[in-house]
What we know:
The structure holds two protein chains of two kinds.
Chain A: H1 3-22, H2 25-49, H3 58-74, H4 80-102, H5 107-127, E1 137-138, H6 150-178, H7 180-190, H8 192-197, H9 202-228, E2 230-231, H10 238-251, H11 257-276, H12 281-295, H13 301-308
Antiparallel strand pairs in A: 1-2
Chain B: H1 2-18, E1 29-36, H2 43-63, E2 79-86, H3 91-104, E3 109-112, H4 116-129, E4 132-135, H5 142-146, E5 152-154, H6 159-173, E6 179-183, H7 188-204, E7 210-215, H8 225-233, E8 238-241, H9 246-257, H10 260-263, E9 265-268, H11 274-278, E10 287-289, H12 302-315, H13 321-340, H14 346-353, E11 357-360, E12 363-369, E13 374-376, E14 379-387, E15 390-399, H15 401-404, H16 412-417
Parallel strand pairs in B: 1-2, 1-3, 3-4, 4-5, 6-7, 6-8, 8-9, 9-10
Antiparallel strand pairs in B: 10-14, 11-12, 12-13, 14-15
Amino acid sequence: MSKRSLALLLILGVATLVGGLLLPNWMSYLFTIAMGKGLVVLGLVLLMRAGLVSFGQGLYYCLGAYVAGMLTQFAEVTDVLLILLASVSFSVVIAAIIGLLLCRYREIFFAMFSMAFSMILYGLLVRNQVLGSTDGFNVANPSLLGWAPGPEGASNLVLAVAVLLVFTLGILAWRYLKSLSGYAGEAVRENEIRLEYLGGSVFKIIYVKYIIAAGLAAIGGTVTALVSGHVDPEMAYWTTSGEFVFIALMGGTGHVAAPIIAAVLFESLRTYASAVAPYTWQMILGFALLAIILFLPSGLWSLVERFQNKKPRKAP
Amino acid sequence: MKHSLLTAATVACAMTTGGLSLNAYAADEYKLGLVTFLSGAASGPFGIPAKNAADLVIDAINDGTLPAPIKGNGIDGRMITPVYLDEAGGATKQTAEFRNLVERDGVDAVVGYISSGDCLAIPSVAEELKTLTVLFDCGTPRVFEEADYKYVFRTTATASMDNIAAARYVHENLSDLQTIAGINQNYSWGHDSWRDFTETLKVLRGGDIEITTEQFPKLFAGQYGAEISALQVNSADVIHTSFWGGDTDAFVLQAAARGLLADNEVIFTAGETALNSLGEHLPDGAIIGARGPFGPFAPESELNTWFQNEFTERFGTPPTFPAYHMAQALIGLKLAHDQAGVGASTDEVISSFEGLEFYGPGGKVEMSRGKGHQAATEMVYGRLTRVDGEITFTDITRYPADCVNPPDGTETLKWIQSGMPGAECN
Lengths: 316, 426
């Protein structure tokens, strides 16, 4: 990446942040939630490029959120950086264990097994009275390096952190996809046997992607928990994971920015759908997904590709 | 490639700013956000009856046709304009939608929330946005036990009241009570209900009670074959259930077919909403609760007669407890405004709402818990019976508010376990 484009991205990042802070509160809140979800979907997209659809990203999304919630509520740790570090490390450790089993499976078996693990977490949380069962519990306002901005400033702090994370992690993910290990994902999808003959380890490639995806999902969960101020087991429920797949399909796997844009679009679509049609907003979402699958099978990003080039370029 | 990254971010920015909309402020209307389940499993038994009640009561408040002593048109003479929102979608979505209601739609107050999870998540946002919020139906006692709120009120008693009263009822009415069994949904509501019920019974009977089996089927499972078998094998003197909605219907139909309801006493703590849907299938002698003095248990008053008649005429079915809860919340909100006077600030309305005593269609409501923010009402149980095919109730017991609600400032579970000190039951 050249210095010029890095500078441009930096300016864009600051512009997004300032824009986010200037937006009315309800919109910047929506934007922050979308950033959180976008990061989860970014991890999902990494897996999807290797031909694996996880219906269980909710597991790490929820783990991240609960670690954040428990730290603020029971350990009185409110520092955003500490919380992020803790939830990512915890989720990565869990992913490293579960991944040993999961990464042996492909296709529907991978999808179902990943879902099963997230439903196990859901079941455990529902039975846990201390953590509020299905009602969940509230998350205290975060602080940064000893600076506590209070209830009004907290959402701005999380927004700033979210934007920073999205840009850094987005650039890192973009670099990763350009690397050998990143391209190996497509190789896995196309032909595993050939990849093994070339000397690559399919298991290792998928394992690494799975762990990265788990880390990203944990960050997404942490951001959501800190900005919404409440966590509940619904975050591990399979419908939440399904929502991430929905957003991934909406955006497409063509680019690291696609999931973030799709997440912003999804959140806006959902809030306007429920304002316009309080009885039938789910139907509007359904039709939107149907339309995207029918007319843009490679997601919204294929629109950008179509505008940029006459012939569709090879991803990323 | 770098260009595509930039394009992407630009598209994202353009999209969010494009969504901006402006709201014209109208001084002669009172915009009220109303949040209930309009879709999903909780909409049929709870959300829609509550929404219907809101339509009815808001029209009556605007037209000034509520029976005396409630008077005046609208709130402070301002006509109420409702903004409806679906509660489905989970707590994260609801906190976002709450912000939208306040900051985008510019509502003056919000009345809503059936799910306890939402009721726990919303108050901190309401405090941040300084918006008067009335929780109308959710049951968890945690809302005002875990924190104090300034802008948040709940005009409904907690679910603990239902189960403390249920325990008192079976203790007093079943002469040779030795054993109990429970079937409750596997989520907070079910676990909390069962816990409050069993803990109260243990206290009332000095520990002399045996639990034969406790079943926690999945929420909305719909099939209870295995659980009914377990209840039949581990027969108990009374079966406790806090089932609601379609789960009650499914359970009653399946249990009746297998003779469980003929052989066992069953107490349905939230069974009243099933009266309309199940009707003839409910067995004689079933003990039914309505989460307060509502529906068939509502005390006679002009307001209740008006509510019953108007609701039945307009919507074809009699009002159930969620409808009463909604009416209670709206009337409470109006009376708090009336008492504070025309043009009162939010702070003045709050201070007149705190500790308010008023009469809704279900009788007296005292905002006497949670530092004046949480209601306590009486609780009623009765046995279903049929007179010439019409459902009525016998053995009705009314428990005063101070008998089945913990005093202000005490935690429900601790209060129960310490022997319910200060409970006044006469």
